[in-house]
Amino acid sequence: MFRAVKTDVKFPKQEEAILDFWKSNRIYEKSLEQREGGKPFVFFEGPPTANGLPHPGHCLTRAIKDLFPRYRTMRGYWCNRKAGWDTHGLPVEVEVCKELGIHSKEEIEQFGVEKFIAKCQQSVWRYMQEWERVTERLGFWIDLSQAYVTYQQSYVESVWWSLKNLFDRGLLYRGHKIVWWWAQGGTALSSGEVGQGYREVADPSVYVRFPILGSVNPSLANASLIVWTTTPWTLPSNQFAAVHRDIEYSVCQEETAEGEVAGERFVVAASLVEMLAEKIKRKLRVVSSVKGAELVGLRYQPPFDYYHQTRGSQVGSLKTGGESIREWRVVHADFVTVDSGTGIVHLAPAFGEVDYDVLVAERERFVDGSGPALICAVGPDGKFTEEAPDYQGVWVKDADKPITRALRERGKLWHQEQYVHDYPFCWRASEDPLIQYPRESWFIRTTAFRDAMLENNRQIGWLPEHIGSGRFGNFLESNVDWALSRERYWGTPLPVWVCESTGKKDAIASYDELCSKPGVQGLDVWLDAKAKNPELAEDLKVHKPYIDAVTYDSPFAKGARMHRVPEVIDCWYDSGAMPFAQWGYPHSGKELFAAQFPADFISEAIDQTRGWFYSQLAISTMLFGDKPGQTSVSSAGNGYPHPFKNCIVLGLMLAEWYESKDGKQRFLTEEDARAALGGDFVQKTGKMSKQLRNYRSPQEIFDRYGADALRWYLFANQAPWNSILYSERAIRDSIPEFILRLWNVFSFFTIYAEIDGFVGPADISGPLDQLGSDELSRSKTYRPVAQRSELDRWIMSELAATCRDVVDRMDRYDSYGACQSLHGLVDALSNWYVRRSRSRYWASDKSSQDKIDAYWTLYEALVVITKLIAPFTPFLAETLWQNLTGSLEGVRESVHLCDFPTGDFAPTDATLNARMALLREIASLGRSARMESKLKVRQPLGRVEVTLANDTHAAWLTEHDDIVREELNVKEIHYTSGASPFVSYSVQPNFRRLGPRVGALLPKLKQSLGALSGSQLMEEMTRNGKILISIDGKEIELDGEDIQVRLSAKDGWAAAQGSSCVVALNTALTPSLIREGIVKDAIRLVQDLRKRRQCNFTDRIVLTVYCESQQILDALQEHRDFLTSETLASSLHLQLGSGDTTCELVELADEKVAIDLKIVPEA
RNA sequence: GCGCACGUAGCUCAGUUGGUUAGAGCGCCACCCUGAUAAGGUGGAGGUCCGCGGUUCGAGUCCGCGCGUGCGCACCA
Length: 1163
Prior knowledge:
Elements: H1 11-24, H2 27-33, H3 56-74, E1 82-85, H4 90-100, H5 105-111, H6 113-137, E2 143-149, H7 153-168, E3 172-182, E4 187-189, H8 191-195, E5 198-213, E6 223-229, E7 240-243, E8 248-255, E9 261-269, H9 273-280, E10 283-291, H10 292-295, E11 299-300, H11 308-311, E12 315-317, E13 323-325, E14 329-332, E15 345-347, H12 353-365, H13 396-409, E16 413-424, E17 435-444, H14 450-458, E18 461-463, H15 466-477, E19 482-483, E20 485-486, E21 496-499, E22 505-507, H16 511-515, H17 523-532, E23 552-553, E24 561-564, E25 568-569, H18 571-576, H19 578-581, H20 590-595, E26 602-605, H21 609-623, E27 646-650, E28 653-660, E29 666-667, H22 670-677, E30 681-687, H23 698-704, H24 707-716, E31 724-726, H25 728-756, H26 773-776, H27 790-811, H28 815-842, H29 849-869, H30 874-885, H31 910-932, E32 941-948, H32 954-959, H33 961-968, E33 970-976, E34 983-989, H34 991-998, H35 1002-1011, H36 1014-1024, E35 1026-1031, E36 1034-1039, E37 1043-1049, E38 1054-1057, E39 1061-1066, H37 1071-1092, E40 1101-1107, H38 1110-1118, H39 1120-1127, E41 1129-1136, ...
Helix pairs in contact: 1-30, 4-6, 14-15, 24-25, 25-28, 25-29, 27-28, 27-29, 27-31, 28-29, 29-30, 31-33, 37-38, 37-39
The structure holds one RNA strand.
């Protein structure tokens, strides 16, 4: 038995009840248990950083991550979903520092590393709980209880194992390189991290004179090289000036107003002279030219003396014999261009990677130890050292101004301006600019795997496709060795121990391995700490500072000890290791890893290209495969070293808000803005920003509209890889557009099922399971679809077609297309099937088979749709399922335990679907024509003429003209496909067919056909089955398929044209039609009154109508039976007069009418 | 600077292998319908499909060059 449900449903509340239901009945767990042994569908959770609250963008990721596993589970796959949390790294440290009000490493050390990492660990726990709440509320089914956590010992040990593997294969090395250095944080950053922090800034840019020393070329004597730099602070560390040997340089002088040349001579690239002259607003004259090659070797005076004073004249021995000045020479460099600057480049090898390469190359020319040493006037803290006493202790960026001033004072500054460019800042401490700095650091030799990574990348199914060859492929092409180490605290410790005597190194793969090293000491540091504070998480023992205390006997030198290196590793490595580290592999979980690698499906936003997508691919490629040293995973039977087979790359989510024109007031919805500002506001879209508070928290969205509304919005509004607007209005709109529409159909069903006592499958004896057709057909009242009315067969055919379409699309990861398909189905069900079937549900004979068919059809459609939408809007689906299955014996307790419908219950009847679509179009056109002629649908019309482009479906349409008559409220309908007085025809070629055949003649053919009479051509076609046309002397024969007939309504008719038919109305009104119209109006007025008086659907009434117009009363009298049956009136009194005060006063056909309505008490 | 993507109605977006009348939803306005009723329908828009050039019988769709936006890269000296 079904109970009528209300239409004023509160979805958020309903969803929370469903959450409880899922939890208390372990539905998720059961959905997995049920599929055990099924084909696995492997999903990897890219671990969110447990730092900061989840925002709407994360909801998109989590919704997509939920959708496909749910779908696959219903399709019979076993999809294990293990949650994970990324817990290490700079973000966490920064967050804790903020909390402690500290910033620098010194302050952390002062605070105490032990206390600091304990705080880090607590901090991530706090955020993990927030994340879990949102995850659950969104309906993201994932096993949170078994989540992998990157700081846990087993995870860390997996990472250690992988690093030891790389170390043993010589792929993990310590190198001296110029790295992007976060001075305040005292650590290097990986290219991935650097990339996150680029920002446009205006830096001072200076053109500086480097006077040439001792040139033998007279035109260069006393001339200066002009170099350009945007980092004045690097000038004290200048070591070389670079030119390109093939570039033409000019020696210039300024030209005075009199046309004389005067003043200093200087050297710049010839092609830049004009541009530079404009910059300094002087006329320049080229006094001589010189090739770059001729400049190479010249000495110059650097702008600062700090090193030059003592080393300026030092020479070194060249390998080729002879000697050379070591530094402050002009050198050649390939990278020098004339794109900007002066064509002469200031080199400070300490602060630029290419500059450093030049130094190394120069050093190569000298006998060992005799070449130039690195000049670096800046300490690791980013402040000048005593080597540049004028600026000692000054932060480099603060030194730009005083340095520029000093240059000007000493006459070295040739020109100065602002230069706007992108410059990296620390991605977590966004006020701290990064600097390039020479540093010893640990690297992974990823460049050795570049080609392998590219090959693996080609195996990945990227959505959208262009990511693979485009963005991600390009990123791999420009691969550089992974700068792995971080001189920080909260991270996976680098598992490398160094011999204090020989400097030789050793890597370990687990804590146990470490403990079993000979002469191991320092394990007590952890034990003591734990004894002092039993609350300490056991996992911390593999972290700093405890792990640093562990030492052991060196295998390399007797009596020497092995000490761990101080560094921790890049947290991106942690995340990329998750395919195996989530199982603790290889220390545990070998079978799980073998079975769960690679992933069938992952998804993250596009910002993970250089993040998780890369880290996974890089690590998997290096570790797993068939190369020596790699761990072969082919035993798993898949042989893929690439970690994921399909990846949906999501677009970024943008915020939408409304603000006052001055930007001072901000609102999240248009209504709020309108309420506060009237019409005086603007809509804005842009990045989500915590500071601007330009978006509503996910929790608020859940409370207001529900998780299903958000989910449907995210899935159904655009392809997932497009950037998406987090539009509150659009989220809200997804309720009436889809969710509520479906709910209304369901509500309609329950209202009448209750009235008629339709019990659905409740009368079926024997076990029920998923309520498929096979089960329902066991009901005595259930007839095979083939025996039911055409409308029933139609909706079942549409239903089956949609099932097939959705499956097809979802198998291709096309969630957007699947949603469109579902939307169309619900629209067809609501706006045609139910609309056209209403009278069947109202039929008074409760045992009429047609009525029962209607119930069964609608019931089954709802059951199937409920299953179809389950992965998309799981809450709504569950509510519907519970209501539709009620207390049925044995039926699956949740829709999420059902199989996804594949449409095998009914064939798709394409002809029927096409015919019904045509019928719907005719109805729609008819309404359009009525509108045009201002004839409301309640006014019956005599006749409608439908002219069809072809008569394929004419007979069928004629059989169904009752539907159109009712839809359009006309007495008669006439179909024709021939000549018609209100339609003109034009014949067009079928371009797609004829294009290849007639080619260039097509335009002329079109013209010729257009010029001929359409109806004559049609006649010819009907008579001969073909048309002959001569174009430029060529005979062209056209058959029926070669032409397309277009109809258009002639002017002067109440007609509307569609793609394949014209619908014209006979607008002549007879008195009889007018009287009928009056009755329809009256019925409408009474129904309205019934509702206002809050009648039940089944209440009978006594109806009295008073009116001064005999004409109206006559009309009502004439259609008395119609009026009473439509309004459930048990008696009807028609009175001439104006009625009394209990009456409702209304207007009917421009006359005043009073209606009295009394409910008949139930017997 | 280089790369990738995007640029279609007021807004948000669809647009299949190129086929000649470019669609949807929303918003706005008007009207209609209504025993699913805090739903539903019809219409108005009539859009230089960012611009220019090319390929083609035919271009929103393919190619080239620009312009704009977003994101990414880096030899930003």
